[in-house]
Write a structure and sequence with these properties.
heterodimer; A: about 650 residues; mainly alpha; three-stranded mixed β-sheet; about 5% strand; B: about 100 residues; 3 helices; about 0% strand
Chain lengths: ~650, ~100
């Protein structure tokens, strides 16, 4: 295997820009170990000082998060001036003879992007939580958990091998569990936390098997090594069967973490957590870990077109299904949750159609506008005494101008209206899908874009426009500055982020990631249709406008929606199906909980009767034998002596007979 | 005198000792019977030495006598202690090894 792999290595990277391997211990990268360690320190410090400092402990967490962000910016500039695959050696993790695993930091262009997103959005969410969580009984613990999450996510993106990535992967699972179940007094919330954790474990198994397979194929889990024998450097020598297995197993892991079919069910329930958590973990960062994993492993994925096709179809079907469900949800956070699932689907469409940097680009813009949408939703809930029913809102434009304007930016961004950020990333994904011959995927993607614009407009119109539909007991007001400031920062990013980063398809962001992600020049994509890029852009814009227009006609301020949910204009059996989320939860409940429980009970009987029976039977036979043979032990000294003598006589007799 | 007489005597002494060990219950008597068996062996060794004309057997006899002396010291000490502890020298009485 190794010789085969080494032989193909020389032919790689002919036209595709690639990175040099650099072991860097100087400059910002030399200090990069502080990026994950500071939030970990913050986590410990906040927990230790929570009793004495009370709510002021939150500033420790914010300081750590901000320092991480500053370091991440410095690292970004160093990567920018010295492009390459920087590895910062740190400590030995496992040191057992031939098996050497060290916790090194891998810093390249992709890591730099992820670092900025994670620490940047993370810091904004920390600041926002100052106001949002004010008065909560476990205020300090919330900030401790936020810091723990940042640490976990940073371990994930900085890991220099699949194993360290997996360590971070598990840590974010834990932090996510802790934060979803933050208000664990409510049994539903605690159940949501368990659901998220268990669903993620299913994906973890897939990821682990992928790692076993990678290790048995390459003999290492390192992404890159100094002697060019890392997994991603040797991936070009994979045969297509192994590539298929590894690729699909990795996608299985990614599907759980990034909420794709069939493992997306945990994400909508995860909205049980406090809203800043939804923004940070379940929109901007953690759920993108799967996208990061697949983008990082792009050189494995490109070795088999079937893997890419599966990923693309999973992505587009998830996007479509989640968008359909979102149309008929009434909870403002649930709509955003399904919208997140849908947008993650787009990212996988990008990955699956060979547009790795397009997928990561959408990850970045999505972090801006979806983080903003969630924080805006939190601001609305803050104003509406934690009510989340969109039908009981309306007319908040006047009362909360800052939340309104920033939400408007995010709404236009996610709907794909130029020049907002979401337009560029979504359009570039769809263009890639079309140009790489995935015409059906592209068509469904465009349909989903219409639906996205539709349900997000419905969300926006119901909350902010029209007449006030809330009762006299609610007195909405604009949120404090600590909450509106992050909204404005994210608003600017959602407005300009797309155009600045990647105005044209092969703009600065594309070129920035080009050395990291695999080239698709060798992949035998199907021929694409006759449409050129301007026509595709036109179709994307039309899709957004149609979606918004339809929503305006049905939910615009001119409509009488005073009957609340009774005035919902979309009715009928299909709408009912969408509202009940296609009964997926019920189906899973029936198959895995009810039927699985039935099977487990039968197996438990087998275990009790057969397995335990065999074990107890062996013990029983032994003790029965002992009960019989113990009688031979009389305790009479002369008896034993008689035995010895008799034995000796017999032995001597035998010897005498033999000698003769 | 034929050498066989020595061996016959030795065999008789050994059997008497062995029978004593098997049938008697008093620890002291047991002990004496063991000594009788040892000396039966000594007699055989001395007789053998005479028969083959070598000194090896006689050397062995001295070894046995020395070891028997040491054994007497330890054995008698044990017997005294057992008597103080249990108030009897009947070897059947304790039956601590009964299963």
């Amino acid at each position: 295997m190794h010789t085969l792999v080494l032989a193909t290595q020389a032919t790689e990277g002919a036209e595709h820009a690639s990175n040099a391997f650099l072991e860097t211990t100087s400059g910002a990268i030399g200090l990069a170990w502080l990026i994950p360690i500071l939030p970990l320190l913050g986590f410990v410090l906040v927990l230790v000082t929570a009793k004495s400092l009370r709510e002021r402990a939150a500033f420790i967490a914010i300081t750590m998060s901000t320092l991480s962000f500053v370091l991440a910016v410095a690292v970004f500039f160093q990567v920018s001036s010295e492009p390459g695959t920087h590895v910062r050696p740190m400590v030995d993790f496992i040191n057992a003879g031939p098996l050497q695993v060290s916790w090194d930091l891998l810093i390249d262009q992709l890591t730099a992007v992820m670092l900025l997103v994670v620490t940047g959005v993370g810091t904004l969410v920390h600041v926002y939580s100052l106001g949002y969580m004010h008065g909560d009984a476990r205020y300090e613990r919330f900030f401790a958990y936020l810091n723990l999450f940042l640490f976990s996510m940073l371990v994930l993106v900085l890991g220099s091998s699949f194993l360290m990535l997996f360590v971070g992967w598990e840590l974010v699972g834990l932090s996510s569990y802790l934060l979803i179940g933050f208000w664990f007094e409510n049994p539903e919330y605690a159940a949501a936390a368990k659901k998220a954790f268990i669903t993620n474990r299913v994906g973890d198994v897939s990821f682990m098997v992928a790692m076993f397979l990678i290790f048995s194929t390459f003999g290492t889990l390192d992404f890159f090594t100094a002697d060019h024998s890392g997994v991603l450097e040797l991936a070009g020598g994979l045969n297509s069967t192994t590539a298929l297995a590894i690729g699909l197993l990795l996608m299985g892991g990614a599907a759980a973490k990034s909420a794709q079919i069939p493992l997306y069910v945990w994400l909508p329930d995860a909205m049980a957590g406090p809203t800043p958590v939804s923004a940070l973990i379940h929109a901007a960062t953690m759920v993108t870990a799967g996208v990061y994993l697949t983008a990082r492993s792009s050189s494995i994925l490109v070795m088999n077109l079937d893997v890419l096709t599966v990923v693309a179809w999973i992505g587009v079907l998830t996007a479509l299904m989640a968008a359909l469900i979102a149309i008929r949800q009434n909870d403002i956070k649930k709509i955003l949750a399904y919208s997140t699932v849908s947008q993650l689907g787009y990212m996988f469409v990008g990955i699956g159609t060979g547009g790795f940097s397009e997928g990561v680009f959408h990850l970045v813009t999505h972090a801006f506008f979806k983080g903003l949408l969630f924080l805006a939703a939190g601001s609305v809930m803050h104003a509406m005494a934690n009510k989340t029913d969109a039908w009981k809102m309306g007319g908040l434009r006047k009362v909360m101008p800052l939340t309104f304007w920033t939400s408007a930016i995010a709404w236009l961004a996610i709907s794909g209206v130029p020049p907002f950020a979401g337009f560029f990333s979504k359009d570039q994904i769809l263009t890639t899908a079309y140009e790489h011959g995935f015409t059906a995927v592209w068509a469904l993607g465009v349909l989903t874009a219409v639906l996205t614009a539709f349900y997000m407009s419905r969300w926006f119109f119901l909350i902010f426009l029209g007449e006030a539909r809330y009762g006299d007991d609610v007195h909405p007001h604009e949120s404090p500055t600590s909450m509106t400031a992050p909204l404005m920062v994210l608003g600017v990013l959602s407005l300009a982020g797309g155009a600045v980063l990647n105005f044209t398809h092969h703009g600065p962001f594309y070129r920035w990631l080009e050395p990291v992600v695999a080239g698709t020049g060798d992949v035998a994509f199907a021929a694409h249709g006759p449409l050129g890029e301007p026509a595709l852009i036109g179709i994307s814009i039309v899709a957004a406008v149609v979606g918004i227009g339809l929503a305006y006609a049905l939910y615009g301020p001119h409509r009488d929606l005073s009957q609340g949910a009774m005035s919902e204009p979309i009715r009928g059996p299909l709408a009912e199906l969408m509202e009940r989320k296609f009964f997926v939860d019920e189906a899973y409940e029936a198959v895995f909980v009810t039927f699985g429980g039935w099977v487990s009970e039968r197996l438990a009987v087998f275990d009790k009767r057969v397995i335990d029976g065999a074990v107890n039977g062996a013990g029983g036979i032994t003790s029965l034998g002992a009960r019989v043979t113990r009688r031979a032990q009389t305790g009479l000294l002369r008896g034993y002596l008689g035995g010895v003598v008799a034995g000796t006589v017999v032995l001597v007799a035998v010897l005498l007979v033999q000698v003769r | 005198m034929p050498i066989g007489y020595y061996f016959a005597l030795s065999a008789m002494m050994f059997c008497i000792g062995l029978a004593g060990v098997l049938v008697r219950r008093n620890a002291i008597v047991l002990f004496m019977c063991v000594e009788l068996m040892l000396n039966a062996v000594n007699l055989t060794l001395a007789g053998g030495s005479r028969l083959w004309g070598g000194a090896d057997g006689q050397v062995f006899v001295f070894f046995v006598i020395v070891v028997a002396a040491a054994e007497v010291v330890v054995g008698l000490a044990l017997i005294v202690n057992i008597f103080f502890r249990r108030g009897t020298l009947d070897v059947d009485a304790p039956r601590l090894l009964k299963g």
